[in-house]
């Protein structure tokens, strides 16, 4: 089939370092070029990074901050953030965002620094 359709708000939520996510197209049998996640940040999320995956965040609801490689930036609805591989990042505050991982999300490409250690390589 040359297309897929997903109703994000009908997907079962899953725990993630950010709170809760509803992932569309992440588990397709063929490796997808991207996936789409509806993410609810319920508290400050855990700092993490990806070695191969790029992410695009679009804030849909709420106001807070995004921390990128140790620097904090204010975010509000319609703020878009492009996060390259290797960038340590986390969302701060109660937010709802759309996350577009490229290529599609792979749980094996989610990395955390050891507590108290942050490498900016």
Strand residues, percent: 35-45%
| Helix and strand composition category | mainly beta
Poorly predicted ranges (pLDDT <50, ≥5 residues)?
A: none
What's the overall geometry? globular
Mean pLDDT: 90
The DSSP helix count reads 0
What kind of sheet is the major sheet? 6 strands, antiparallel
Number of strands: 9
Question: What is Rg?
Answer: 14 Å
Question: Whole-Å distance between the termini?
Answer: 41 Å
Helix coverage percent of residues? under 10%
Order of helices and strands: EEEEEEEEE
Looking across the biggest beta sheet, what order are the strands in?
1-2-3-9-4-7
In short:
Helix content is 0%, strand content 40%. The chain contains no helices and nine strands.
Tell me the layout of helices and strands.
Layout (H helix, E strand, L loop, with lengths): L13 E3 L2 E6 L11 E6 L12 E8 L2 E5 L2 E5 L4 E4 L5 E4 L2 E8 L19
Antiparallel strand pairs: 1-2, 2-3, 3-9, 4-7, 4-9, 5-6, 5-8
Task: Using brief descriptors, characterize the structure shown.
six-stranded antiparallel β-sheet; three-stranded antiparallel β-sheet; 121 residues; mainly beta
């Amino acid at each position: 089939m040359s297309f897929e359709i997903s109703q994000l708000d009908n997907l079962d939520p899953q725990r993630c370092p950010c709170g809760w996510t509803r992932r569309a197209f992440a588990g397709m049998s063929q490796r997808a070029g991207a996936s789409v996640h509806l993410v609810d940040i319920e508290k400050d999320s855990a700092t993490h990074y990806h070695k191969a995956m790029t992410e695009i965040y679009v804030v849909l609801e709420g106001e807070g901050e995004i921390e990128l490689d140790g620097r904090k930036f204010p975010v509000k609805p319609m703020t878009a953030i492009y996060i390259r591989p290797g960038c340590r990042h986390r969302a701060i505050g109660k937010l709802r965002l759309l996350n577009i991982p490229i290529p599609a999300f792979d749980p094996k490409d989610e990395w955390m620094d050891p507590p108290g250690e942050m490498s900016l390589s």
